[in-house]
Design a protein that fits this description.
Length: 363
């Protein structure tokens, strides 16, 4: 593109070789993508005061002091010379802060030069080499959002240690750089680690409960409960339930669906038990009453596990799954997910039921 007049000076001075395109135009400056030898950088061209669109210019210029008394008097009077000096002081403060933050190790664009109202600095790029998107233009899952939040807090602390406070650190002023792809990967690793930790905690809780129950049984002379091999169903009906449920793996969750192409959580459990000749009520909160309740330590493959919003009120039950043994369960978890095998988790777990054809809770 034809270089703007403000950038032609940098070409004449040999600071840049060419101007490729305009990247953006904001209230304080225009930003262009430029070439400097083999590198692609960006040039921030500060707008003159008469062309800026600050709603409250005083918010950006107050408390900017100069040591020269003549300049200070002119700035206070608002004369032409004073406005020019105020403009120069404001730009210098912005540039000085950028250099200061870069020296402190804060993740800011690396500044290269400042010449006649033009700041030459690093181009923040994404993984494909294009200009990085703003944080506001990106979407994250909860795990990634937490990782990014932690990274931002660390940068803010570094800024404070450098004696700088950012007056407008919003999602519109933060770029997601190529290096942040590593953050996304870290977030995914953290999510997997969290799931593994949750599964481990659930398995430990199950093993602890079963061990305690077995100890109590031995002391009383009774046979220890829950001693089936992992995954072995206690009855032919339970085996049929599990076999039917496994055959549905990979089918999509759909609220209100009872099969055969899609299921919600209670639709899946109801269909699985129907295959074994046991007809359960339609919704999870009613399936809770379809048989005797089973302590955690005595869970057996085929038992139904329930989760509720209020652990003291079965009416708030919102999810049900089929226990497979070995700390695993099979469920249709939520919208957007598929029928799948999951580690047992205990957050919100209210208890378990062992459906029984003779129970009054079975239709």
């Amino acid at each position: 593109m034809k270089p703007p007049a403000r950038l032609q000076t940098l070409i004449d001075e040999g600071l840049i070789d060419s101007v490729q395109r305009q990247l953006m135009s904001g209230k304080e400056a225009m930003v262009f993508v430029v070439r400097c030898g083999d590198e692609t950088r960006c040039a921030k061209v500060y707008k003159e005061a008469t062309h800026r669109s600050f709603r409250q210019a005083v918010d950006y210029t107050e408390n900017r002091k100069v040591k020269n008394s003549r300049q200070a008097r002119a700035m206070a009077k608002g004369s032409k010379f004073g406005r020019q000096e105020q403009e120069a002081a404001w730009q210098s403060a912005e540039v000085d802060a950028l250099y200061r933050l870069a020296d402190a190790g804060v993740r800011v664009p690396k500044p290269y030069n400042f010449h006649e109202g033009v700041l030459l600095m690093e181009l923040i790029a994404d993984a494909d080499g294009a200009a990085a998107p703003r944080l506001n233009d990106c979407e994250f899952d909860p795990a990634a959002a937490l990782v990014h939040h932690g990274a931002l807090i660390r940068e803010v602390v570094r800024m404070l240690c450098a004696g700088v406070v950012h007056g407008d650190l919003s999602e519109f002023n933060i770029l997601l750089a190529q290096a942040d792809d590593q953050v996304r990967a870290l977030a995914e690793q953290q999510r997997v680690a969290d799931e593994a930790a949750a599964a481990s905690r659930a398995a430990v809780a199950l093993q602890t409960a079963q061990s305690q129950a077995a100890t109590r049984g031995l002391e009383s002379g009774a046979a220890p409960p829950g001693q089936l091999p992992i995954g072995q169903a206690p009855s032919s009906q339970a085996a049929t339930v599990i076999a039917f449920a496994r055959a549905q793996l990979g089918k999509p969750y759909l609220w209100g669906a009872t099969g055969p192409d899609s299921y919600d959580c209670s639709g899946l459990t109801g269909a699985a038990y129907a295959a074994a000749g046991i007809h359960l009520p339609r919704v999870a909160a009613q399936q809770w009453f379809a048989g005797p309740h089973v302590p955690l330590a005595q869970l057996q493959p085929g038992d139904l596990m329930f989760w509720a919003d209020n652990l003291a009120d079965p009416a708030t039950i919102h999810h049900v799954a089929i226990y497979l043994g070995g700390g695993l369960m099979l469920a249709a978890p939520h919208s957007g997910a598929l029928v799948q095998v999951q580690p047992v988790y205990l957050d919100g777990y209210i208890g378990a039921t062992r459906p029984d054809p003779s129970s009054g809770g079975v239709r």
